[in-house]
UniProtKB/TrEMBL annotation:
<keyword id="KW-0472">Membrane</keyword>
<feature type="transmembrane region" description="Helical">
    <location>
        <begin position="41"/>
        <end position="59"/>
    </location>
</feature>
<feature type="transmembrane region" description="Helical">
    <location>
        <begin position="65"/>
        <end position="84"/>
    </location>
</feature>
<feature type="transmembrane region" description="Helical">
    <location>
        <begin position="6"/>
        <end position="29"/>
    </location>
</feature>
<keyword id="KW-1133">Transmembrane helix</keyword>
<keyword id="KW-0812">Transmembrane</keyword>
<protein>
    <submittedName>
        <fullName>Uncharacterized protein</fullName>
    </submittedName>
</protein>
Length: 106
């Protein structure tokens, strides 16, 4: 235990200060932001820069499943080299990009 922030249990690390829990390769960022299974999440300034595999982002602007995503200021989404600039929430499922209102973007 270091400063009440890091706890190691059998190789498992729980970092409370960074609001991240790593358990058996699973990464869960508390505060309703990111649930990551089986891959590594790079998080800078509260924004997920790079994610792979299955990712569910809660309380943020994008929900992605199985695609590479890049978010900048919550407005830019990159899908396979394509850049979409949005000012609202986005859901992507199976290659389709929808707003929460149901409008099809791509």
């Amino acid at each position: 235990m270091l400063g009440g922030r890091v706890i190691m249990l059998g190789g498992r690390v729980i970092m409370f200060g960074e609001c991240v829990i790593i358990l058996g390769g699973r990464i869960i960022m508390l505060g309703g932001r990111v649930i990551m299974l089986g891959r590594r999440v790079v998080k800078l300034g509260g924004i997920v820069i790079m994610l792979g595999g299955r990712v569910i982002m809660l309380g943020e602007r994008v929900i992605m499943l199985g695609v590479y995503v890049m978010m900048l200021d919550g407005h830019v989404v990159m899908l396979g080299g394509r850049v979409i600039t949005l000012g609202e929430r986005v859901i992507t499922l199976g290659g389709r990009v929808l707003t929460l209102g149901g409008r099809i973007i791509m």
